[in-house]
Amino acid sequence: MSPPFNTEDKHKRSTSKFSHLPLSTSGPVDCAVTGTVLLNTPYFNRGSAHTLEERDQFNLTGLLPQSVQTLEQQAARAYQQYSSRPDNLAKNTFLASLKEQNLVLYFKLLQDHMKEMFSVVYTPTEGAAIENFSRLFRRPEGCFLNINDIDRVPHDLAQWGRPEDIDYIVVSDGEEILGIGDQGTGGILISVAKLVLTTLCAGVHPNRTLPVVLDCGTNNEKLLSDELYLGLRQKRVRGEKYDKFVNNFVQACRSLFPRAYIHFEDFGLPNARRILEMYRPKIPCFNDDIQGTGCVTLAAIMAALHVSKQELGNVRMVIFGAGTAGVGIADQVRDTISDEKGIGKEDAAKQIWLIDKPGLLTTNTEMSNAQKIYAKDGSEWEGKERSLLEVVKAVKPHALIGTSTVPGAFTEEVVKAMAEHVERPIILPLSNPTRLHEAVPADILKWTEGRALVATGSPFDPVKGPWGPDGSEVEIEVAECNNSVIFPGIGLGAVLCRAKLVTDRMLVAAVRGLAGLSPALRDDTAPLLPGVEEVRPVSVRVAREVVRAAVDEGVATEADIPNGPDELDEWIREQMWDPVYRPLRRVEPQGAGRQAKAELKVVGSLERVEDRDARQKKAP
């Protein structure tokens, strides 16, 4: 693994080889605001950590207690306050409030307690926060667009900056949130949470991101009958009007923020893949539920294959649960087999069997377009049982993936059938939350006498058993297939090289970069994937491989990208935002940039749209 980089050393340097870059994080930060405006700007506010010089220079005397504290002291106090909250939802609310006050302190606290706080700032606690969005609401965060005002979409998006201000946009329509279903306008919080992870895990600049919700109504009767619900109080809109709404959003983003990367998140099953396939050939976009899940799962599989000394090109795989996640995993495996073996995607798909509610998907089964490439010849299965157990017995797969949300589906009989023909079966029960897992690691390892290579969709404790060479007790650590070890690095790489598209080859490169950092490559009792506490250097490696693939394919548009891996890593690190207090440099408002004037998200929208229209008229 790449060594972790020392952020404090980075910011002590007076110069950097890449300090001239627009996203460089070395040196001081320009600030043109003073007094209470500065203290009310989370990007500039340091609270009690403002130095005496800053207090004098920025007219903060009298607005702060006299003692000057360090970021570390502030983080210790914030952790005490966090720890005093009675439950995880209250802790989540505390963190959201801190984020609105001081961005650096917020991310410093998360970084210092990553393992403890990850489940509070993201799943499962973020799911509870989203369910209670209208009841916990204090102040808006993000951009709220609604389907009854389609023509206002460009106007409303324009309030968030100029073309150079936004790098990363996360958008959700709130229909399928974190396993809790339709949450309507509360989906804004999943966009916010995903952007927190891009900054925490990969250093995407937090003041250059935009969370968006597309409010199309909701079919959640509980929300519709709640007098406090803040979204459109109507059933979800489908069809032509929905497509026009999404298209207006995408086109407005491309016009207003032409270099921004668009991340689709938690769209409903009828729309997620369709929208991705519609826009992926045209713009730099990504769907974490489909592509992120596919990438992280494939990385775990590739690490497991290294341990079991097998080649991906020869693998037979059964996926139990053929929804968005299951088909996304199948697609990523298929595309990588196709790339590695130099064969067509249809031929690569022959190595993958999908099982859904009707059983094994065959040509005699009604299915979606996305599933059809994996359908097996119905005549070959005529009269045969198509259950999971019978498919495992017939196919003798090397890998079994669970995305079904059917608890206990990987029974002892199924797992033993997997282990009967494969020395080191790869078994990944990925359904979330824990109560929906197809099997727990302890059972899988017990039923395979410690031979199975296991990763899960939720964190599990290590498993001990008598699986050493001489029957001695061995402890096996179980990897969590957490998308956060890959999607932030993919986004960072795409942003830094200003990719025109996110190609299959870029995703395959990201998977190989992550798989190459597997702890199991050095010790087969170690987890198949790095943990989130190691994610910053992991994101550097993933971003590096994404950038190199983008350059090779001719879709990178940024100039002067370094060639060598070490120099490229330095180039990436220099542009990753870190939670440290960089010195504030006083600049006059006249001629200062909008970030320095704390105006990144308060630009006059009418003026902004007029600027856009003028540019379009000048275009050839």
TrEMBL record:
<feature type="active site" description="Proton acceptor">
    <location>
        <position position="194"/>
    </location>
</feature>
<dbReference type="InterPro" id="IPR012301">
    <property type="entry name" value="Malic_N_dom"/>
</dbReference>
<dbReference type="Pfam" id="PF00390">
    <property type="entry name" value="malic"/>
</dbReference>
<dbReference type="InterPro" id="IPR012302">
    <property type="entry name" value="Malic_NAD-bd"/>
</dbReference>
<dbReference type="GO" id="GO:0005739">
    <property type="term" value="C:mitochondrion"/>
</dbReference>
<feature type="active site" description="Proton donor">
    <location>
        <position position="122"/>
    </location>
</feature>
<comment type="similarity">
    <text>Belongs to the malic enzymes family.</text>
</comment>
<feature type="binding site">
    <location>
        <position position="432"/>
    </location>
    <ligand>
        <name>(S)-malate</name>
    </ligand>
</feature>
<feature type="binding site">
    <location>
        <position position="265"/>
    </location>
    <ligand>
        <name>a divalent metal cation</name>
    </ligand>
</feature>
<feature type="binding site">
    <location>
        <position position="289"/>
    </location>
    <ligand>
        <name>a divalent metal cation</name>
    </ligand>
</feature>
<feature type="binding site">
    <location>
        <position position="482"/>
    </location>
    <ligand>
        <name>(S)-malate</name>
    </ligand>
</feature>
<dbReference type="GO" id="GO:0005829">
    <property type="term" value="C:cytosol"/>
</dbReference>
<dbReference type="GO" id="GO:0046872">
    <property type="term" value="F:metal ion binding"/>
</dbReference>
<dbReference type="InterPro" id="IPR001891">
    <property type="entry name" value="Malic_OxRdtase"/>
</dbReference>
<dbReference type="Pfam" id="PF03949">
    <property type="entry name" value="Malic_M"/>
</dbReference>
<dbReference type="InterPro" id="IPR015884">
    <property type="entry name" value="Malic_enzyme_CS"/>
</dbReference>
<dbReference type="InterPro" id="IPR037062">
    <property type="entry name" value="Malic_N_dom_sf"/>
</dbReference>
<feature type="region of interest" description="Disordered">
    <location>
        <begin position="1"/>
        <end position="20"/>
    </location>
</feature>
<keyword id="KW-0479">Metal-binding</keyword>
<dbReference type="GO" id="GO:0004471">
    <property type="term" value="F:malate dehydrogenase (decarboxylating) (NAD+) activity"/>
</dbReference>
<dbReference type="GO" id="GO:0006108">
    <property type="term" value="P:malate metabolic process"/>
</dbReference>
<protein>
    <recommendedName>
        <fullName>Malic enzyme</fullName>
    </recommendedName>
</protein>
<dbReference type="GO" id="GO:0051287">
    <property type="term" value="F:NAD binding"/>
</dbReference>
<dbReference type="InterPro" id="IPR046346">
    <property type="entry name" value="Aminoacid_DH-like_N_sf"/>
</dbReference>
<dbReference type="InterPro" id="IPR036291">
    <property type="entry name" value="NAD(P)-bd_dom_sf"/>
</dbReference>
<keyword id="KW-0520">NAD</keyword>
<keyword id="KW-0560">Oxidoreductase</keyword>
<feature type="domain" description="Malic enzyme NAD-binding">
    <location>
        <begin position="290"/>
        <end position="551"/>
    </location>
</feature>
<feature type="binding site">
    <location>
        <position position="266"/>
    </location>
    <ligand>
        <name>a divalent metal cation</name>
    </ligand>
</feature>
<feature type="domain" description="Malic enzyme N-terminal">
    <location>
        <begin position="99"/>
        <end position="280"/>
    </location>
</feature>
